[in-house]
Design brief:
Elements lengths: L1 H13 L5 H10 L1 H9 L5 H9 L2 H10 L3 E3 L29 E4 L4 H4 L3 E5 L6 H16 L3 E4 L5 H11 L4 E4 L13 H10 L1 E4 L9 H14 L3 E3 L7 H11 L4 E3 L10 H8 L4 E2 L3 H8 L21 H9 L8 H8 L3 H13 L3 E3 L5 E3 L18
Helix pairs in contact: 1-4, 2-3, 7-8, 8-9, 10-11, 14-15, 14-16, 15-16
């Protein structure tokens, strides 16, 4: 395993992350033979040039300086979901399972993402988008679900901050080395992510982000989590790319609706309209979609109606009372189709709840319940 780790470490240094040719060669020949072919000049000439110039000792020292570790498939903390990338169609000529991952953070990566959701969106987010991403992330970690994102401006940062505020784990996949915070202004935020989760990259320490690398890392964000939520995104957005990867990996795609007319609402609304994403508005919606198939959560808010708490006699008696004036118990019983005794019992229970009232002349009338909060009444007669 030590020899394979060093070979994968070397390959991850000389081949750009997300190059599907490397994953295909490893699947066909194994890492040792691929490395031999690279050194022999039997693959891409650029790979060979980088391989011959590679200083593995310098790389190991850089890892130690930033307290990074290099994970490979088969390690106990390697996230198994990444294996789905082997079967995911290429997107913009990118794809494949990474040769390995550099990780900063004490928590085992597999544990940190076992129950996880990716939250992605626009870098130029609105205050609405930031609030939604923050509250959603906070609520998810409170439910034991960690939050995965990319550490960028906008929705990414709001998601990480929300998860951190909730005290739960969050994982940031970066497009450069794990020792190279990007953007620089997020250096402190990413250090907090390291403390409460992990910062992860398929690029060696010291490497800087590029547009290609942002697109490549999106596949990891999508594959490693149980589902992806897009909060805000304009017509052209890297978050849209992440959604494409999520769909290719068979993960649920969720979208939060935004204000009509906002440019950042375009992509979420389009995804919902075209059936590529499910509309979600809160933690309960997300939990339902990432949970076992066919299981519906029982923690959704419910709109109880007044009659939901009444038994048959109570409903009949309540409907037998006039909006104005009053009726005696005998007339109420006649109109409700119940016995006088049952009418008296129901009227007493409804009066206790404030739903009916007895006038001074002995007649019964409706109480002033209107739109006030629902007041429970005693249980059905069959339970008494």
């Amino acid at each position: 395993m030590h020899e394979e780790r060093d070979t994968r470490r070397a390959l991850a240094c000389v081949v750009e992350g997300g190059d599907p040719r490397l994953a295909a060669l490893i699947a066909r020949h194994g890492v040792a033979e691929v490395w031999r072919l690279v050194l022999a000049g039997a693959t891409d000439p650029a790979w060979t040039a980088r391989a011959r110039a590679l200083d593995l000792g310098s790389l190991l020292r850089a890892e130690r300086r930033c307290s990074a570790r290099f994970l490979i498939p088969g390690d106990p903390e390697w996230p198994e979901r990444l294996g789905d990338l082997e079967f995911c169609p290429e997107v913009q000529r990118l794809g494949g399972v990474p040769a390995g991952l550099w990780v900063r953070g004490e928590r085992p990566l597999a544990d940190a993402v076992e129950a996880s959701v990716s939250i992605v969106g626009s870098r130029a987010s609105s205050s609405y988008g930031d609030r939604v991403a923050t509250e959603l992330a906070d609520g998810l970690v409170a439910e034991g679900v960690s939050v995965v994102s990319g550490g960028a401006f906008g929705i990414d940062a709001a998601a990480h901050r929300g998860a951190l505020a909730g005290g739960g784990p969050t994982v940031a996949f970066v497009a450069g080395g794990v020792d190279e915070p990007y953007p620089r202004t997020h250096a402190q935020l990413l250090e907090r992510v390291v403390e409460h989760g992990a910062v992860v990259s398929e690029y060696p320490p010291g490497e800087r982000p590029t547009r290609y690398r942002f697109l490549a890392r999106n596949r990891l964000i999508a594959a490693i989590s149980q589902g992806t939520v897009i909060v805000e995104a304009a017509v052209r957005s890297g978050a849209r790319n992440t959604v494409t990867w999520a769909s290719g990996c068979g993960r649920p795609v969720m979208a939060v609706p935004g204000p009509i007319g906002n440019v950042t609402s375009f992509t979420p609304h389009r995804l919902i309209r075209e059936g590529e994403a499910v509309l979600v508005t809160g933690v309960a919606d997300v939990r339902e979609l990432i949970g076992p198939l066919g299981v519906v959560g029982d923690d959704r808010p419910r709109c109880a109606r007044l009659f939901d708490t009444l038994d048959a006699d109570q409903r009949a008696v309540l409907e037998a009372l006039p909006e104005r004036g009053g009726r005696d118990a005998g007339e109420v019983a006649l109109r409700a189709g119940v016995t006088v005794a049952a009418a008296f019992a129901a009227l007493s229970e409804l009066a206790e709840a404030g739903l009916v009232t007895r006038r001074g002349d002995g007649l019964w009338r409706l109480g002033e319940f209107g739109n006030r909060p629902l007041v429970p009444v005693p249980g059905p007669a069959s339970e008494r």
